[in-house]
Design goal:
With 440 residues, the protein is α/β, with parallel strands linked by helices. Helices cover 18% and strands 29% of the residues. The protein contains eight helices and 29 strands.
Amino acid sequence: MSSAATRVTGQDHLWSVTEHLEDILATVRPLEPIELQLLDAQGCVLVEDVTVPVSLPPFDNSSMDGYAVRVADVAGASEEYPAVLTVVGDVAAGQGEQLRVGPGEAARIMTGAPLPPGAEAVVPVEWTDGGLGEGPVSGMRAHSAAPEGAFGQVHVHRPAEARAHVRAKGSDVKAGDRALEAGTILGPPQIGLLAAIGRGSVRVRPRPRVVVLSTGSELVQPDEPLGSGQIYDSNSFALCAAARDAGAIAYRVGAVADDAETLRATIEDQLIRADLLVTTGGVSVGAYDVVKEALSSVGDEDEEGSGIDFRKLAMQPGKPQGFGTIGPEHTPLLALPGNPVSSYVSFELFVRPAIRTLSGLDDIHRPTTTATLDTGKALTSPDGRRQFLRGRYADGKVTPVGGAGSHLVAALAQADALIVVPEDVTSVEPGTEVEVVLLG
């Protein structure tokens, strides 16, 4: 963690959102690069430029099923006066044998097959009689069912210009070109490109491993019956999904009861598979706030700045927060409130940027924009706190959803934006321009 000497501490200090985030980002560092096979590298960030070792495509090839011809042999061809050519064989994709097309000849060619020597263009099979001696056809018969189609004569009903329906060597990328830049997130198209240029593995920063733990003796897993005073554990599911959405490999741990020793033991067990730990619940000032009880004194006395610092932030929802490092590897831990909306807002503001920093990304924040507040009444905000309200954004307007209730999980599910009310503003009137964090 950043040095304790550089941080303001103490129970009475009210941290700003910016101060808390800066402290997190001063601690979290991108993960060390590793070499991964292509499919294992999906979702990871490249750490070096990738250049093309061989042109793509590596040879001139046909973009159509048809016939490879010489331009002069089909000049002026029409249905009334077709060009009649001798078919000298088939050229299939992957075929090693090379045919040569001479004057008055054609080679039946398949999509992706190399253009044979002597040929200058490809006429689609639909421009021919397919070797049947009749009118235009819509396709070729399978070679196994009609091998005679590779020979005989073909009537061509249209002329073709030079290089018609031919994909030139290197028309996609040329040898020596830069295929992908360092910092690129590897999605399906990028994985496909790497495979196409012959790369079986790449050097990337691995996807961060994030362990999510919820706390509370009242929590019950979905599909289990609820007892008196119990509720379903939704936070761990929401935060685990949010971590995956941010690019992490996320592991969800079932709800831990309100017992400090049990929580400490659970966290210690999870350290082996965590680049980042996220807890939810137990960080406020109640007698059963187990996270605060369990982790307030876990710091390494010989390591300045280690341990978990619990603090109050000038924000709503999400005032109680915890952050620090834990374990022999000083694994970052973010302790979020247990209120479902507070925990999700806290994730978006603090955990998501931490995950993307671990991934090695430069763009770590959600996009923001300004929008006109579209509501029938003013929004009020506590004096001295930055407020983040749920909203729906469309066409430059944002509408609050769910009212002021902080436990409205259903309202959170309807929101695709957060409306930001600055800490020095106590009331925002309808029609006012406000800052919006876009969640979608």
